[in-house]
Amino acid sequence: MQKVILAGAVMQDMDQVALGPRTFPGPGKVVFMSRLNPMHVEAVIDLINHGPFFRHLSMRVKDMGTGYSLVELDMANEHLNPFGGIHGGAYASAIDTAAYWALYCEMEDGAGLTSLDLNIDFLAPASNGKLVIKGQSVKVGRSICLGEAAAVDMEGRLLARGSSKLMVTQGLQTIQEVVRFTGEGNLPPKFI
User: Fold this and answer.
1) d(Cα 189, Cα 14) in Å, to the nearest integer?
2) Which of the residues in the chain have pLDDT under 70?
3) CB 16 within 8 A of CB 4
4) Which has the closest alpha carbon to 92: 112, 131, 119, 67?
5) Which of 37, 81, 92, 109 is 20–30 Å from 176 (CA)?
């Protein structure tokens, strides 16, 4: 565990430190913080990318860490609407996924998330190629979290953006449920 002295503001390396409890003592108090375990992140990415819906959509989480995620979707004929452009549901699924996994690394071990509200702005059509969806954490609360994501094509053109409001759960939609569903063994600990 890393010892951090708080003196009015929390100083942290956002790529490596994830907070446990979200309450802080006053200035000058000693707090023990855990680091996000890179082996856990790698194992989770491998596990979720083998899920049936992700495979069906040709969607993969490529990276995630404290406050961010990176998702890719390979557009193909099955993603198109009757007019020949990517269906809004494919955008929505990718944006919701990126927002969810951007928040995951900031959540306490054992907590789950479930989507309450999804707001998508469709900005430009696309019909083929790869979409890159970048998610980021906006707010992590005790009961409600907010994430956002933007989908771009390989030229960097913004195609869609959106936000996902998620409810924090205990025992519902946790990473342990993914482990049980897939029949995989135990994951490395989330924090070290």
Assistant:
1) 19
2) 1-33
3) no
4) 119
5) 92
Q: In what order do the strands lie in the sheet with 2-5?
A: 2-5, 30-35, 17-18
Report the SS3 class of residue 80. strand
The residues spanned by each domain of the chain are: 2-35, 38-182
What span, in angstroms and rounded, lies between the C-alpha atoms of 150 and 23?
30
**Residue 145 identity:** C
Give residue-wise pLDDT tens across range 60-98. Answer: 999 999 999 999 999 999 999 999 999 999 999 999 999
Give the residue carrying structure tokens 């002295």.
Answer: 5
Strands 2-5 and 158-170, by their bridges, are: unpaired
Q: Which amino acid is at 55?
A: R
Cβ neighbour number for residue 5 with a 10 Å cutoff: 10
Instruction: Report the CATH number of the 38-182 domain.
Output: 3.10.129.10
Cα–Cα distance for residue pair 104/191, rounded to 1 Å? 12
Pair of tokens at residue 3? 């010892």
Rg of the chain over CA atoms, in angstroms? 18
In the chain, where do the E strands start and end? Answer: 2-5, 17-18, 30-35, 59-65, 68-75, 111-122, 129-140, 144-152, 158-170
